Amino acid sequence: MIRTLLSLADTGRAALLTALALAGLCLPLGNFAQVPAPLPTVKLSPVARITLLEEEGLSESTRKFLRAIVGQPMALSEDQIQGAARIIAGPPGRVVFGTGDRIYATGTDFAGQAQPRRGQRMRIFREAGPLKDPQTGAVLGQETHYLGHAIWVSGGGLQPDTAGAENSNVRVPASLDIMSSHQEIMVGDRVLMAQMEPPEAIRPHRPTQAVSARVLHLDSLGQQQASQNQIIAINKGRNDGIEIGHMLSIVSRPAKIRDAGDPLREGWLLPPERAGTVLVFLTFERFSYALIWESLDGVRVGDVLAGP
Predict the structure, then answer these.
(1) Which of 284, 275, 206, 240 is nearest to 136 (CA)?
(2) Closest Cα partner for 124 from 179, 172, 197?
(3) In terms of Cα–Cα distance, which of 296, 136, 140, 286 is closest to 225?
(4) SS3 153
(5) Could you tell me which residues come within 8 angstroms of residue 153 by beta carbon, excluding any fewer than 6 positions away?
(6) By three-state DSSP, how is residue 30 classified?
(7) Plot region of 129 (φ>0 → left; ψ -120 to 50 → alpha; else → beta)
């Protein structure tokens, strides 16, 4: 009897505790914690961000592309040709040289520039003929073919002639090692020290003054026309107000048509239209290099470029 009463008392105490706990859960939450207000619903819609071309520099991939192209000179000024060294010999008994060969060059004074350092990269090229202005026929520079590159080993100059008369000197050429060759390298080919790279910051912009230029040269050997992402030379340079970063429009070539519905079949000349854009990335006094940024048709020597 007593054990039964105790069991009932325990059961009642448990029920009481359970009721109190449930009552606590039902108390207003404001007494214990603040519930944040519901967040507003935000509806997102796609929008277009318009950035002027002048505000953007070149992408790193485009800069790497230009740097690789500029490392293989296509056309050089007369001053650059005159300042280049000339290969006079290679391994004994050889007239054609290639990768791994040591070659010797003269004319390595490189006026106005510091002497190359041991291990410095040099470019080897061959003159291919004059670049003539398609409008005037004037020679603006020299077309060149890139042959490969070498590294500088040692400079030339006068050294004591140990095999000759006492106190006599002998001339010694500069020494270079060919590291790569895309074509056969021969005596008479030239070595260029000047590092030609696009500047660190190229900001595309339209000219402020009227510009009219012609395509002078294509960087596509054996091809008659160039397309997007290829390099061209134009017949205007710093002397004509051309700046690095200038964006010039490619002007379509004149086209003549005949009206099929006209009994007289008279001819019509279609007006010139914008057919693409080029970006100037390297300038010289009388000509410049440009990248074909976009093109609706093939670009040929003699095509017209205009700005702004």
Answers:
(1) 240
(2) 179
(3) 296
(4) strand
(5) 102, 118, 174, 175, 176, 177
(6) helix
(7) left
The number of residues making up the chain comes to: 308
What are the structure tokens assigned to 196, written together?
């030609």
Exposure on the CB side of residue 202, measured as CA atoms within 13 A: 24
Q: Which amino acid is at 111?
A: A
Structure-token pair, residue 282: 């390297």
Domain span(s) for CATH 2.40.10.410 in the chain:
211-307
The model's pTM is 0.63
Tokens representing residue 139 in the block: 């020679």
Distant-in-sequence, close-in-space partners of 77: CB < 8 Å, separation ≥ 6? 141, 142, 284, 285, 286, 287
User: Percentage helix, strand, coil, to 5, in the chain?
Assistant: 15, 35, 45
Rounded (5°) CA angle 73-71-156: 85
**What is the assigned CATH class of domain 211-307?**
mainly beta
| Per-residue pLDDT of the chain in tens (308 residues, 90 and over written 9) | 444 444 444 555 555 555 554 554 444 544 444 555 666 665 555 544 434 444 456 677 777 777 666 656 567 877 788 888 999 999 998 989 999 999 999 987 766 667 788 888 898 999 888 888 888 889 988 888 889 999 999 988 777 777 666 667 888 899 999 999 988 999 999 998 755 555 556 888 999 999 999 998 887 656 788 888 888 889 999 999 999 899 999 998 777 777 777 777 778 888 878 889 999 988 888 888 899 988 888 888 889 999 88
